[in-house]
Amino acid sequence: MVIEKFKLSDKVALVTGCSTGLGQGMACGLAEAGADIAGVDYVESSETGKMIETLGRTFLEIKADLGSIKPVTTILSSIIDKFGKLDILINNAGIIRRRDAVEFTEEDWDSVMNINLKTLFFLSQAAAKQFIKQGTGGKIINVASMLSFQGGIRVPSYTASKSGVMGVTRLMANEWAKHNINVNAIAPGYMETNNTAPLRADPARSKEIVGRIPAGRWGTPDDLKGIAVFLASGASDYVNGYTIAVDGGWLAR
What we know:
The protein has helices spanning 21-32, 46-54, 72-83, 106-134, 156-176, 197-200, 203-212, 225-232, and strands at 12-16, 36-41, 59-63, 88-91, 138-143, 181-188, 243-246. It is an alpha/beta fold and 253 residues long.
């Protein structure tokens, strides 16, 4: 039965940026499908942990600042010590800085690029090495953006990083598919998250955004559960290097 391919029973997933928002939603979605979760964030993820444990799954909280690649080795070793393996990686952690391009600072450029792209790549590399060592294959899901496809305004480093995410997703898929490692990305649209709080707080801008979304609403973390489970499961075994938009139709306009 095809429904069996979507089950994640006995799988172990690492989800970064799991304390709130999209990361929390995807972590819970994978747990609902049967996976145990290792969650990484720079703040406590107790709420996410309780939600996952209520589902009958195990949650390992790992507190780490992904603004540099220093924690990568420790993160992987903590997961292997606890679960003995890793099957799925969701690179969700990311930040955004808003400022006109003519005034954008090097600090704002580097901070965004480091967490959104550099750490994403090296954490993926570490996960791929573990998958190859296990001989089991694995799934890597990167969180891209609509700005992987569009230029946007006032977010130069975010646009650059998310365009890079789509590119390295293809690169990793090309190199690692031979190891039965699937690398794909999700491009969320305008979602109800901490990053979009300033936009949603501006009535005129929020109305303008929703007016262009065919679905007529902001997305929610729950809207990413299904696509995350699909890309993490056996149902997507022949999907490689693709970035799937979950945007209520924004890019179709």
